[in-house]
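Q: Can I see a sequence and its folded structure?
A: Here is a first one.
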Amino acid sequence: MSTLLDAVSSWRPFTALVVGDFMLDQHVYGDAERLSADAPVPILHVRKTESRPGGSANVCLDLAALKGHVKALGVVGRDAAADALREQLGSAGIDVTGLIADESRPTTLKQNLIGLAQARHPQKMFRVDHESREPIGGEVMRRLLAAFDAALPGCDVVCIEDYAKGVCSQDLCRGVIARAKAAGKPVFVDPARLPDYSKYRGAAAITPNRTEAETATGIGTSADASPQHNAQLAERLRDQLDLDACVLTLDRHGALLLEREGTPLAVPTIARQVYDVTGAGDMFLAALAAARANGIGWADSVRFANAAAGLEVEVFGVEPIPLEKIHHALLVETAGLSGKVRTLDQLAVEVQARRRAGQRIVFTNGCFDVLHAGHVWLLDQAKAQGDFLIVATNTDEKVREFKGPGRPVNCVEDRVRVLAGLAAVDAVVIFGEDTPRETIERVVPDVLVKGDEYAATNIPGAAFVESRGGRVIRIPMMQGQSSTQTLRKMGDPRAETTTTAVTRERFVADKP
């Protein structure tokens, strides 16, 4: 897994073409607290309506969240839904010039009615689909393939997202795959539930779920089918379709990978509290293609896609999962980051993910040797300044250099353990330099907090934070509360430190 983490750490942008069924998902929210008087059906009192790209359009957004430059290639109608789809994709940076308008069909629109009863969790009640499943006409297909030919030289990967709405016809899929293979560009397919997958022949990989694979192969199975049984499905699809790899997605059982010359590999996933499986297949396809575009091997690419799809099911509705969040999930899985202690590299990744989620990052530092009420007060006030509080503490060696040979009273392992046990603290990191400036420059906090016994010029990193648009806040200290005073009350000789003006300048001055 360290190879995968290294690869994700050096992730590079890529270009992807997405071919398939583009849709607009509409969510109609309201209260559902009573039944109709004339029929035993719930009434939805509509409060708001939201629309977002769906189907292949959602794959585009997923790829963009993974640092992809994306071009959309599909068919829409000449209607308001098409206008909304183009506008929303365009605002996300997706190239929509490849969306061909066809007056003979509507843009696929899925209206989801979502009710809230007694202020509880929102629940999908019903769905209304506006669509045509007729195969696209020859002229529309010609225009679509012409757009594909124009975009192909500049792409790294091609994704086909087939929802059986008529766009991914046999002729179109075969044309796309043949052109991509001739150009040396891999094609990744999330197939529809069909009895015949011959139109996908020659793709690099397909990612059917278990039910879809059963339908396509004619091999039945049970809910608890063994890996050996699933391997039969994958082997038949791989051989029939001349694939580089077949990847069966198996929900809570993870995925099963079968490469062209390999043996079946079960890739487990982390058990998650499932919230909504909508969009998980789209996210898996996007993540698999993105990982392969970054040169990651098949097994690690499936692990990466598993992590992405797992995060997708934990949100209500459909939400693209950013690269930083997947990276953090992989760190948690491999490094066991169930607690709060982080290395600087781990912390940098986590901060990126939290910042992408709109959270404000707060940073403070100190020795925190003999923890007292003043420390807790400072940390509580610091946490109130944002969403995620990072506390950096010195190594034992640096504490001794700063305060003298009798300090610290508590070793760094114990100090970190105590800090991690405080509710206000979200992450703890140890730094071995004289000041935390290097840590601050990696984290780039939105808010830097320090006690008001320090002047602004004696807060390392203050100028840097302010130069990046952040704030520096000095918190009033509690009177009579300090590690030194606590030790004096105890009659402990370690209360007396050997800090000189020169030493203090070295450890507290805000300078590179």
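Q: Show me another, different protein.
A: A second, unrelated one:
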Amino acid sequence: MSRKRKETPLSQRAVPDVVRDKARPPLAIVLGSPAEVVHCLRFLGGMEAICYQMDLYQAERLQAELAEQQTTATVITAADLWDLPTVFQTVLYLPARAGERELKIDMVEQAFHILRPYGTLMVWSPYEADPFFANLLKKIFGRVHTPHLGSETVLWCRREGDRPRRRHEVTFQARIASGPSCRFLSRPGVFSYGRFDNGARALVETMTVHPGDRVVDLGCGCGTNGVFAAQQAGATGHIAFVDSNVRAVVLAEINARNNGVADFQTVASSRSEGLSEGSFDVVLANPPYYANYAIARLFLVRSRQLLKPEGRFYLVTKQVQEIADLMMETFENVEAIMHRGYTILSNTPFAS
């Protein structure tokens, strides 16, 4: 029974009374699923709140959930938590179960800087016992309170004094074949933090990009695929970096400039909007696989719309059958090649 309870999402649990006891406006709710955020807001009885998200897709889902539940809050999507336009008396952080460790550290450290003096940070953990957050909060805030709540874990602490801002980021280098080495800045919360993903490497090693091509790096992350495509497209080419994660778009712009991409644009969009349809020669896609393949389907449909009639589409996956079926609904021809343990699907034959 205990094991089953621990797997229950926060949205289906009673919000601990300590959350209501400690919460004071203005309130920021950091991340969390749309259902979890709305659950907390309803428990807090309409308290003035700003809900922070890093991803436009999640932010739009949250706004839809708020409207459906007739709950009022302001949703802001930003690259960093400390980009929010105010300081707060209370911050409530809803970390994901099995979420990225570095992102959790980053959010706690940034939360310190958006609190008023003696403001309160609360972390409602999805785990019954959470030594990770207890140790982290003690390190950042100096003192952490872990009240005994039976089967729930809410940790809280107050901001006292000041501390320098610290960005969590890792720079890594990568190269393709005999091409020049590139340096990429990465930050937590963006796909493939601190490394060049093997699937992305497989994709760019099999793509065909000609000088002067207009290329879309769809779901760009920190921009590795688009930067390597730019090496082949040359000075007359154009690269569009597109992602729903606004932190990813910021990083893609930094990395494109630092690696000498001559002509590029960055677009933050949950639906790959903001680009001229029928104007691109190549689309590169490495979609996330959640929401019942909704994102992969969106990538496919938008890619078909963005490409010129003779344009080339490349998608990397390990879930071949499901994605191939979706591709055949969108493109007349589907080719596949195995590389580095991944399957790259394309609407055109691969170069021999």
